[in-house]
Amino acid sequence: METLNNLSNTFEEENKKIIDSRNAWHSPNLSGELYWQLLKGYGDQILTKRHSPDSFYWDDDNREVMQQLYLYLIGHKACKLDINRGIYMMGAIGSGKTVLMKSFIQVQDYLTKHRTLIVHSKNLFDLIKEKGIRFLSERPMFIDDLGRENHEESDFGRKIRPIVDLFSQRYENGARTFATSNFKIETLSGTDDHHGYGKFITSRMQEMFNVIELPGKSRRKPLVI
What we know:
Number of strands: 7
Largest sheet: 5 strands, parallel
Number of domains: 1
């Protein structure tokens, strides 16, 4: 009986650690005003770095999404998202997905003291080669432009799919994952298991993510002289 009690206490302690880890992603005392200020501040920095003449702004296309991201960040019960899942933001090319998500990630990290690894999908293979899947399997991660990377790579003549392995391990570890993409998750499975992630992985991705579709056309403005 004593052994069973000890085991029960161990389960309770481990579950408490998991719950505490989840709660650490939220900043319940964040005011709406400060949220908007931080989001715009980081957004303007990103655009300035791109040498964009525009400033970060909200309109009818992104206002509701920004509001839901705020409720997600503070862990409010009115949030339409699952506050314990990551976020997969999809939309048209140039709709502002990357700027919005990068800004949000920086606000979130600033408030919750997390350090989310930000990487473009085109650099994922090189990052996995350098650091290894184990290094990347638990830490918070934001993947920009998911679906644009090569799905396979040759390793001494053997075809490998390290991104598939990475998502599989992150799913098992419950690692918080964020992504932007021009594709719906289900289309990333490919026509078969050799051209895409496969249905096994995309079904897991659907459990890992809240899917947000950012409406609107491209915000990018060509320079006209």
